[in-house]
Every structure is written in C-alpha cells, then in structure tokens.
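Hi everyone, sorry if this is the wrong subforum. Our group has a chain we'd like a structural model of before ordering constructs, and none of us has done structure prediction before. Sequence below.
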Amino acid sequence: MAHGTNAEMMKTNNKKLILNLIRQDNYSRVDLAREMKLTKATLSILTEEMLREGLIFEEAAGEDYSGVGRRPIYIRLREKARYVIGIGLTRSGYHTGLFDLGGNAVRIERHKYCSDNADDNIKAMAEIVERYKKIVPLEALPGIGVAVPGPLDYKTGTILNPPNFEVWHNCELSKKLSALCGLPVRLENIANAMAVAEQYFGCCRREKDFAYVAVDEGIGSGIVTNGRIYRSQRGYGNELGHISIDINGKECSCGNHGCLERYAAIPEILKGTGYESWKAVLDDNNESIIRKEAEYLSCGIVSLLNLFDLGTIVLGGSISEGGGKIAEIIAKTVNGRAISRHAVRVVMSEAGHERALAAASIALSEFFF
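Answer:
Right subforum, don't worry. Here is the predicted structure as tokens:
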C-alpha cells in the first residue's frame, strides 16, 4: 500500500507518487486518495495543480468498463508533457536518445567515439544535445541521464576507474556536460540504470524488490529494494561479478580469487568453445555450455538472494538473447538452494538492451521518485 501525506512540505513527493501510480494502472481521484491515504480535498488540490502544469489529464473509462455504476474518470499521465535525453556509454561508443515520460523514443542514435580524449567526446555529446533541444520545447526538457560502466561517484557525477575504460577514468562527466549544454546531468552505473528502466518499462513495473543482472563482457547488478535502487553509504557496491564462487579459483583483476565474472562473463564462458557469441551458443542449442553458465550464475545469484531476499531476478545483457531456457534452469537451481522459502522469479529483461533508454530512465526518476 502506498502512503502519502497531507503536509505541504511533502507536496512534491505526493505528486511524484501520483505520477508513479497512474503510469502503472487505472486510477480515479477517489482511487488515488484511498491508495495514498489522503483526504479527497488534498488529492483534489494536487491533481488540479498537476492539470495546470500539463503533467496529467482526465479521461473517462472506455465502453468496455465492467464495473458497477457510472464509468469512472481516470487520471492519465500526459506522456508528451516532458522529455529527457539519455546517453549510454560503452567501451566502443555511445548511444543517445530523446524520450518522453512514457519512455517512447523520439530519437535513438549510436555513435563512435571521435577521439581517445574524454573532453573531445563530451563536446561531441553536447552538440547532439543541442540538436535534440531544437526538437522539443526547452521548458519541457528538464535534464539528461548518462549511464556508464562502474565504478563511479554518482554524487559528484564522476567516472572513477572502470576496467578497460581508461580514457574516462576520473572524468567529471556530469559537471563538464552540464556546463556545455546548460541542462542538469545525472550520472549512473549502467546496471542500476537498466534496473530502473526495467522498473518503469519492463517486467518489474509492479515489483518493489528485484535485481537486474547484466551478463556481458563482465557481470553487473542493479538491486532495487522497497522500490528504490540500493546504495551503500558511499554509493559503491552491487558488484555481483566480484562475489567469489571459488576462494582458490582464478585470479581476478580486482585482486580477489574466483570472482563470478572470471567464470560466467560471456568471453570467459566462450573460451575454448569455438563460439564467438552467446547467441551462437543458443542457436546451436549447446546444452552443456548453457547449463555450465547457469550453474555459475546460480552460485552468485543464491548469495544475492540470501543477502537481500528478493522476489525477482531479471537477466539482461547478452545473456538475455534468444529465449528463456537459461532462466528456467537458474530458477530451478536457486529456488532449491536459497534460504528464502518463497518462490523467486527468474526472467529475461523486457526493457531490452537500449542503453539510451536506461540512461533516460535516470532522468525520468526525478518525476517518479
């Protein structure tokens, strides 16, 4: 049950809660007041302000409404009221996109880095932002979300020292990009950003406790607890790929031994197999490799479940290509090993691989949370 408050100081939070609820389901004013535990008068004040701001509109239920009495008037999210820009960095290039509040793409583009200098690439990104700013009203464009490989300092918007990402090490990306384009910039770890995208537009729209596990060149995780991204005091952590599954195992670049990603990252699982991609493994239906990957991932996921007692694990990245066979194997394994007695869902990502959308979700989170 969602909880609101009548206090004036919490008006903004209550508006965000309204937006978050109506993007998920049908709510009338009466429904919202009941769900948020607000008086009808307080709810009416909030919705009238949001109507004037253009964030919502009212619409009668359709003719297929099956309830009793008059058809209710629902509060709807006006998706075209605001837009956000998303920029997702990879090791080989970056994706950019312009999206509305519903996650609908106005533009999506992919770019190669223009040089080996971070500042040059930030200038190129700023030029793309300027192009996007001409597409929609500037007052309807509140900010930019940028998703990058971690680790990073999300509070200062600084990329720290991600492996194989040396050009961007210690780059104050948020500060520099914001200065060039005149918009607020929020920086986030790509796994966290993908988790938020899954929460908004994927298979976890009604979930409050889940983890997004990305398996590509490495293994990352975004953990959502009580509806919000889990963060440690300093904003680090969530490094599922560096959970040891063998204390006497392979040495990792992080200094540990037996790290999960030294076994289950895509390049590692493909070593010596003759396959060049995970999709090729699936196309060939190589059950031996699929089961080996599932066993490795299950070891790390069981530890994750024992720590956080999550209800759902979402598999994303390259591992999610080609169907859910590996998800079925992992679900059976982890439900037999995890301490929790409730059934844990293991599913493939529905938000896809779109890094620009994931990055934009970080900017969108300002509206919903």
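For your construct planning: The chain has a mean pLDDT of 89. The longest strand covers residues 93-100.
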